[in-house]
Design a protein that fits this description.
It contains two helices and ten strands.
Length: about 210
């Protein structure tokens, strides 16, 4: 027997068997899927207190609402706190009072100043004072027209008991409760306290 022919035949048979066999399974490709991004929450701005100003630049206040004044630098606690507790028409009871030019109204106030308070007025050489006197008030009719003045003789002569009136001037470390009498031209409208000409605060009158 020819050995070379047997070997050649065996090799051919092995080659044919290999060609007819099933292909070997291939490993599946690895697919990398990026995880879905989680939407980040949009922060909600913290509400901040807004200044309730009118078109004249005055801070609008309600009866009984506290107002503050900073006189010791920005960002420090207020050195004066005050509130208007009522604004009512008043009938003068002093025997020597003269009739008002319009309507006499009594503005009732509660005021507290701290030991660090320093006001914009100097009185008799003493600096750091403030006044709630009629000179530092303005009046406006219901239609917005400004009154020429709210000062008249009734500011000081209206009440028989003058102890009910606030003092003309005061300074630091004070606690006061009293009235300011204004002579307004209309029975309803607004009054504004503006001690330094910067706009000040405003209230509607009369109050209940």
């Amino acid at each position: 027997m020819n050995i070379s022919r047997i070997l050649a035949g065996t090799a051919l048979l092995a080659l044919l068997l290999t060609a007819c066999s099933d292909p070997q399974p291939q490993a599946a490709p690895t697919v990398s899927v990026a995880p879905a991004s989680t939407p980040s929450a949009t922060p909600t701005p913290t509400p901040t207190a807004t200044r309730n100003e009118n078109e004249r630049g005055q801070l609008v206040k309600k009866i009984g609402e506290a107002a503050t004044l900073l006189t010791d630098g920005e960002g420090t606690p207020p050195t004066m706190t005050f509130k208007v507790t009522s604004i009512k028409a008043i009938k003068c009871d002093a025997p020597y009072s003269t009739p008002p030019k319009g309507t006499a109204i009594a503005v009732a106030l509660e005021i507290v100043t701290t030991p660090k308070f320093s006001g914009p007025i100097a009185v008799d050489g003493q600096a750091g004072m403030i006044s709630f006197g009629p000179h530092y008030w303005k009046g406006y009719a219901a239609n917005g027209t400004r009154m020429n003045t709210v000062e008249s003789s009734v500011n000081r002569s209206c009440l028989a008991d003058e102890n009910r009136l606030l003092p003309d001037y005061f300074g630091k470390g004070e606690k006061l409760n009293g009235l300011v009498i204004l002579d307004v031209t209309t029975p309803s409208g607004e009054v504004s306290f503006d001690p330094d000409g910067g706009g000040g605060w405003v209230w509607k009158y009369p109050s209940a």
